[in-house]
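Please check this one:

***
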Amino acid sequence: MTQRESDRELEKGMRLRVKIQGLGSLGEGLARVDNSEIFIPKTAPGDEVDAEILEKKKGRYLAKLLKIESPGPTRIEAECKHFEICGGCDFQHLPMSEQSAWKLRMAKHWIRRSPLAPFVKNLEMDQIHAPNPFGYRHRVRIQVKNGKPHFFKPHSHQTFALEECPILVDGFFESICSQVASLPDTKDVNISALNSYEIDGHQLKFSDACFSQGNLQVNELLWKRIEDDVIDLQQKKAALDLFCGIGNFSVPLTDYFESVTGVESEGISLEYARKNSAEVEWIAGDCSETLEKLLREKRFFDFVLLDPPRMGALKTVESLKRMSPPAITYVSCNLESLIVDLTQLIKKGGYQIKRFTIADLFPQTHHIESIVSLVPK
């Protein structure tokens, strides 16, 4: 490309050859043409590629990979035949060491550029690595068309027929094909390979309609990380688990506390939580409203665990600040909402970070799971 070509506005449909310089915040390869940033999924640092411009958003371009002219030094062969056209996996072309390094680097990057930065200088992070890079996922959401499972293409509502999926646990793909063969065309079908699992010796039941962690091996490691916080507590009379779901962490907490209270707004999850343990005080309702009620009742908890959905728990955190428990552990699936909530707890709530852990819950994807331990300053 000549200098004159690089200086002009890049247009949709334009094809160009670029070299990938790094990875963006969603795991896409990052290239630069003049002062323009171009993000190209499924590319690796050092790749020289042909790409086509798809769109421009907020001054940045999204492009699709057309051809790899010269692979970068870290690029490896993807396990799945669908990798280049599938919107599920981001990183099958990178070794696990590179994926883990990117997730740690990206978490630090998000915090450095956030309002949280002045309060967490020199923050150290540790990592939980996934035992298996493939064959780990036991639940999945699919689209059914013509009696076959379909996934979405990247950044698209278009789907493609699935012929394999190596991130699923052994035998799960074949089971899915059998289950959907007689179904009409259906959107967003949740299917699980299991209806129960064990965590720290406790058996938990659930249905496809319930939320459950997709990687049970790492789920156990998440609990062990939470358990570290619990073991360190001086007093273990009462624990509160907010957004408790089916009791994934509430139930093992009963091994340590005289009383455990779990709060959940989803009726079907709470129905299974009650089946999973009679030792926990299960409360149905919104977590922030329930916290306000607990505050009025002058209830005290030695430990509070919260594991909210992607949008975070800002209203709940506002109430939690006034409750002022001596220890909080926050499990998050979204760095952006986590940083918003942590800023409130640290800047205005009088807490500080004791430990910050990044967990690789979903290898081959850009998903970053975080576990943050908070104690009063």
